[in-house]
Amino acid sequence: MTLPSGIGNRLLAALPAADFDLLAPELETVALERDSVVSQAGDQTEHLFFPHSGAISVMVDMANGQTVASAAIGREGAVGTLSVLGPSPVAVTAIVRAAGTASRIPASRFHTAFGRSPAIRHAVQIHFKAMLIQFQIGGACNALHPVQARMARWLLQLRDRIDDDVLPLTQEALSQILGVRRPTVTLLMRNLRASGAIRSERRGEIEIDQLRLAEAACECRDTMRLELEDIFSTNLA
């Protein structure tokens, strides 16, 4: 079984056929349902997920119940790869924001293939680099940039992963992603609608104007996108 290059998950598609075949017997295609939790902070990793479509946000859960997103994952990445470093509770929660599909594999099976295949280890290292870029730039962005610019960045990051100007997001989901109260999101949405960056907001969907929204976003969106594309194009070509 081989995965054609350019189709499905980018990490899996980059593997040589012999290395992909180490994973293939254990891979199953599963639905990523919107708002479902694919990895819960505090749990052990039982499965790894390699999205083919859709988008997942990586959430940090605080002791007081607040949350904030630290990274976004689409078909370029995976959920659960840190488990290759050894057994330990998951530190973050991964929530599906846009429905899609993924290849799922038991963690124990992936770890076996990881130990046998330099190509799989290389793909995981590339994913680690990409996530580290998001954590570093995103951490600085959360600390230094206005919340409206951060919201515009997150909307564009989601748009980049699903390739659609209609985003399946509620204001409640945005408040969780940004770590702010719901009334703050309502005010920011009003501002972005007035500028034309958001064309419409229906129940559970936000339609954006990509160019105008980019004007409202901080530089972090473009910085992340260029850094990530450089990592993937250089190392997974």
From TrEMBL:
Keywords, ordered alphabetically: DNA-binding, Transcription, Transcription regulation
Record domain HTH crp-type: where: 145-212
Domain Cyclic nucleotide-binding: from-to ranges: 11-131
GO cellular component terms given for this protein: cytosol
Domain of life: Bacteria
Keyword Oxidoreductase belongs to the record: no
PROSITE patterns cross-referenced by the UniProt entry: CNMP_BINDING_3, HTH_CRP_2
InterPro entries xrefs: cNMP-bd_dom (IPR000595), cNMP-bd_dom_sf (IPR018490), Env_Response_Regulators (IPR050397), HTH_CRP (IPR012318), RmlC-like_jellyroll (IPR014710), WH-like_DNA-bd_sf (IPR036388), WH_DNA-bd_sf (IPR036390)
Gene Ontology molecular function: any one: DNA-binding transcription factor activity
UniProt signal peptide: none
Name this polypeptide is given: Cyclic nucleotide-binding protein
Source organism (scientific name): Bradyrhizobium neotropicale
